[in-house]
Design goal:
The complex is a heterodimer of chains A (about 350) and B (about 290). Chain A has about 350 residues and is an alpha/beta fold. In chain A, about 45% of the residues lie in helices and about 10% in strands. Chain B has helices at about 15-25, 40-50, 60-65, 80-90, 110-120, 130-145, 165-170, 170-185, 220-235, 270-290; strands at about 5-10, 30-35, 50-55, 70-75, 95-100, 125, 150-160, 190-200, 205-215, 240-245, 250, 255-260. The chains are: A alpha/beta (about 350), B alpha/beta (about 290).
Chain lengths: ~350, ~290
């Protein structure tokens, strides 16, 4: 594995994916503070919004401390070099949200669909590209299908205008060789100018190893989160991955000591619980469950007297995908009834 | 019983065919024409059912509407072409029942506002909102008829196989139209709609979650009674419409969990989302026929 001189774009998630473990309650002031520190550490790209992306504010996913518009409006003007990205899940957010984000100065739009449903993203990817934005197709829960099937979906997104395609391990389920197989096949078959990215979750503690496998197989954008603040056991801890890349003499442009300081001094202190591999998040990774289900399962488990890991396993059995948080309470009640019955 | 109303269906795809099969059983509606834009499996099926067919779009139907006494037309195509279809058939004096999310005409969710629409007299065009809207807005209305609802939110989870290319190309139309109807017909001050397309095999039966935030503390007994009455109303035309759990009351939040299993006419049972559209559209046409509101 030789990354010497390799240019890799690190993309921080703590102000978007990190909203999940914070129940979307990161304040505008905290966002500004953290984003400025990441900017100062040389992180080139920072994602900001509700954890479920633009328009995620809802009973179903949680109402945030501030609107997407307020977060973006507060953070973007403060940054010296970093650019801001926003996530959009068709079915939750719409092109109206996309236009708002672009007006606020967002430079990168990431349009996310379940890995088999790329064709719901045509209008959003098309519009983002038309607006001249850096446009990413983000294929979630990519462990659920084969590399060949993933390629077909990636080709669709590329044809709609995406200039970068992500293999997204939303459940933190993938093993390094599975990441390699997917990224290599995408690299061999997408246009050479189409960038590739990998988004990991640390549920099996493989965030760093999987990201290394992705880079080796041809990805040049890697998502991570300072101190790993993200859904489930968190995202790939960005300062750890940056340190690994530094030792491998890759070119990230990031000051690893400043990034370590962000993680240690700004992120850890705001955590509501220590984001790490525990039984529930390990179950997510082991069974292939969408990482954001974690806190919903814990709450429903407590409310209905059902073990939260049982709820998560039932979600896996029902092949629930990203966004189906509403099924968790339903399942918890059904399990409670079965237990009583 | 008076003579049946004669009808045409535009769009010989899955939805149009399912609607045709339901309409053939109707006491009030007699399907006569199926309209497509080319020879297709759907046109062939319609011909086998004894329908007259056009493979030349609505233009192939229009010259025959008067002589065939076509008084009602269902559009099961897409929002993009609906306006033009509607203009052409309403010029011939027919009423248009719109199964696309184009929403030119007033929204219709049968158990909620069909009676009111009928009382208002003849409409040229009635819109059936969206599949998610048909499944969930009755529940929003069941709460809002008891007490004011500040916010109504629905999450529709549908099988990937039941979502056609038209919906996929313009999924925003689904969220926008459904949210609008949650407010206008459901009676929530503010509406939000979310759709999840799940590819699981075997395909999952449509399920929906409805969250209402009431303005004041929810009157649980009245709301429960209202929900159960509304479920029974919907079951009259979609027998597989049911609650999967008791509604949850949590502060001012009322959450209702539903499953919609289709009749399995042409569409498979899991696609309750499509079944509830065709059943609601036919129900609407039948009521217009029954009340002679044409």
């Amino acid at each position: 594995m030789n990354f010497k001189g390799k240019k890799i774009t690190l993309h921080d998630m703590c102000l978007r994916d990190g909203m999940h473990p914070k129940r979307h309650q990161i304040s505008v002031e905290q966002m500004i503070d953290i984003a400025c520190a990441l900017d100062d550490a040389g992180v080139p790209l920072i994602e900001v919004t509700h954890g479920d992306g633009l328009g995620g504010a809802s009973v179903n996913y949680g109402f945030p401390a501030a609107t997407d518009e307020a977060y973006l409006d507060a953070v973007i003007p403060k940054l010296k070099q970093a650019k801001v990205s926003a996530l959009l899940l068709p079915g939750i957010g719409t092109v109206d949200h996309l236009k708002m984000a672009a007006d606020m100065g967002v430079g990168t739009i990431r349009v996310a669909t379940h890995c088999t449903e790329a064709d719901v993203s045509e209008q959003h990817i098309g519009m983002a590209r038309q607006m001249g934005l850096d446009t990413v197709g983000f294929l979630m829960m990519a462990h659920m299908i084969s590399a060949e099937e993933l390629l077909q979906q990636a080709l669709l997104m590329e044809s709609y205008g995406a200039n970068c395609i992500y293999c997204t391990d939303s459940a933190g389920y993938m093993l390094p060789h599975e990441v390699s197989a997917r990224i290599s096949l995408l690299r061999a078959n997408l246009k050479p100018e189409t960038e590739l990215g990998f988004h990991g979750h640390h549920n099996l503690a493989l965030g760093v190893a999987n990201s290394m496998a992705a880079v080796e197989a041809g990805a040049n954008r890697i998502d991570g989160s300072a101190a790993g603040l993200g859904a489930g056991a968190g995202n790939t801890p960005l300062e750890v991955f940056a340190a690994v890349l530094d030792r491998m003499e890759a070119d990230t442009g990031v000051d690893i000591f400043k990034l370590m300081a962000v993680a240690e001094e700004k992120i850890i202190p705001i955590m509501d619980h220590l984001v790490r591999v525990d039984r529930d998040s390990l179950v997510l990774g082991y069974a292939g469950v969408y990482s954001s289900f974690l806190l919903f399962a814990k709450r429903a488990g407590a409310k209905y007297g059902v073990p939260s890991q049982d709820i998560l396993l039932e979600m896996a059995k029902r092949k629930a995908i990203g966004g189906q948080e509403d099924l968790i309470e339903d399942v918890a009640m059904q399990l409670a009834r079965a237990k009583a019955g | 019983m008076s003579q049946k109303l004669r009808a045409a269906i535009i769009g010989p795809g899955n939805i149009g065919t399912d609607l045709l099969m339901k309409a053939m059983r109707s006491d009030w509606i007699e399907p006569v024409w199926m309209v497509g834009i080319e020879e297709s499996e759907g046109i062939k099926r319609a011909r086998d059912f004894g329908m007259k067919v056009s493979t030349n779009g609505v233009d192939g139907l229009v010259p025959h509407m008067k002589e065939d006494n076509i008084q009602i037309v269902f559009d099961a195509t897409s929002a993009y072409v609906h306006a033009e279809n509607s203009r052409k058939v309403t010029e011939q004096g027919a009423i248009m029942i719109d199964l696309t999310p184009a929403a030119i005409g007033p929204y219709c969710i049968p158990p909620v506002n069909l009676h009111q629409l009928l009382q208002e007299g003849r409409k040229e065009n009635v819109n059936m909102v969206t599949c998610g809207g048909q499944a969930t807005i009755p529940m929003v209305a069941a709460v809002s008829r008891v007490q004011p609802v500040d916010y109504g939110e629905i999450v529709a989870t549908v099988a990937s196989k039941s979502v056609g290319p038209g919906t996929r190309k313009n999924i925003d139309e689904f969220t926008r139209t459904t949210a609008g109807a949650i407010e206008q017909i459901g009676g929530a001050k503010k509406g939000k709609a979310i759709i999840i397309v799940n590819p699981a095999e075997p395909p999952l039966i449509m399920r929906d979650t409805v969250h209402c935030l009431t303005a004041s503390e929810p009157d649980q007994d009245k709301i429960l009674a209202s929900i159960h009455a509304m479920v029974a109303d919907v079951q009259q035309y979609v027998p597989g419409y049911q609650l999967t759990n008791d509604p949850v009351f949590d502060g001012n939040r009322v959450t209702i969990f539903l499953q919609v299993e289709g009749l399995g006419d042409f569409l498979p049972n899991y696609s309750g989302n499509l079944d509830i559209m065709t059943a609601a559209a036919l129900r609407t046409a039948e009521m217009y026929a029954e009340k002679g509101a044409l």
